Amino acid sequence: MELIVDQEPELNKEDLSAPKEPVNLAMIEEMLKAGLFAGRKSAKNHPRMKPFIFGVHNKSSVIDLEETARLLDSAMDFVKSKIAAKGNLLLVGTTPSAKNSVEELAHKLKLPFVVERWLGGTLTNFKTLSKRVAYFKKLKSDKETGRLDKYTKKERLDFDRQMKKMGIMFGGIEDMPGLPQVLFVVDVNSNLIAVREAKRLKIPVVGILNTDTDPELVQYPIPANDRSKSSIDWILARLEKTVEEGRAQAKEVVVVKAEEK
After folding, report:
1. Could you tell me what percentage of the chain is helix, strand and coil, using 3-state DSSP and rounding each to the nearest 5?
2. What's the burial of 257, exposed, middle or buried (CB within 10 Å: 0-12/13-18/19+)?
3. Which stretches of 42-161 are assigned E, i.e. beta strand?
4. Angstrom distance (rounded) from CA 182 to CA 192
5. Which end of the chain has fewer CB within 10 Å, C or N?
6. What does the DSSP 8-state code read for residue 19?
7. What is the CB neighbour count within 10 angstroms for residue 162?
8. What span, in angstroms and rounded, lies between the C-alpha atoms of 225 and 23?
9. What is the distance between the alpha carbons of residues 81 and 214, in angstroms, rounded to a whole number?
């Protein structure tokens, strides 16, 4: 796939922090096919995204996929290290193009997730949130064991409505053991409250973001099309592989320690 670029911004590649690695052409081709290169209208570009923009085509920005590949590798290395150390990863993707894929991956990997509206205080007021989650779990348990049968029909209907509402709010985090060690966010601009809460608590954030977003909002930015399902799915597939590798490393450490004893 070939991109025809109308004009290229003035880039100072020497200012980029990490050293250049050999380009993986096969990976770049995959990213092109998945549509990761599609940025926002150039008029909406954030100034700090300039080093990650290859050029402009039809007034829309074209993301530099070499930079995306470099930053993606860095982000995945970080996630793997945290998972290998038994760290907890929270997935966040509330936009229509992200929520189904994020929830599907979270269920597959048994990770906590948020795909509905982010509740203010989910991280910064986690103690209070945990009490609400515990109440939600108790209601579900009481219904399953028949403890709610003693109530009137109207009261049971009220409990059902309450559980349905709480399921939407807390369903993805009801089994989260504590604050996450990493937040993985799809579309940073759409989840700024979550990102700010994580920053306040010094929780590292890995974030997929487009050209209209400040990359300094997160510790590990991944410049990419954050509104395309194919683009999001491609990155989530990399994340899935990374989590599995991290868990495999964690198991190896356990085996080695057991053998040393």
Report:
1. 55, 15, 35
2. exposed
3. 53-57, 60-63, 89-92, 113-114
4. 15
5. C
6. P
7. 13
8. 20
9. 25
Q: How far apart are CA 187 and CA 226, in angstroms?
A: 5
- Closest by CA to 72, choosing from 212, 239, 188, 187, is 239
What amino acid occupies position 69?
Answer: A
With a CB cutoff of 8 Å and minimum separation 6, the contacts of 173 are 90, 112, 113, 114, 122, 129, 133
Residue 35 and residue 105: Cα distance in Å, rounded? 20
Contacts of 35 (CB under 8 A, 6+ apart): 225, 228, 230, 231
The answer to whether the CB of 7 falls within 8 A of the CB of 59 is: no
Q: What is the pTM of this model?
A: 0.86
The ranges assigned to domains in the chain are 24-119+179-260, 126-170
Full pLDDT tens readout for the chain, 261 residues: 344 344 333 333 344 455 556 678 899 999 999 999 999 999 999 999 999 999 999 899 999 999 999 999 999 999 999 999 999 999 999 999 999 999 999 999 999 999 999 999 999 999 999 999 999 999 999 999 999 999 999 999 999 999 999 899 899 999 998 999 999 999 999 999 999 999 999 999 999 999 999 999 999 999 999 999 999 999 999 999 999 999 999 988 655 555 555
Query: What three-state secondary structure class fits 213?
Result: coil
Report whether 51 contacts 70 (CB < 8 A): no
**Tokens describing residue 16:** 């980029």
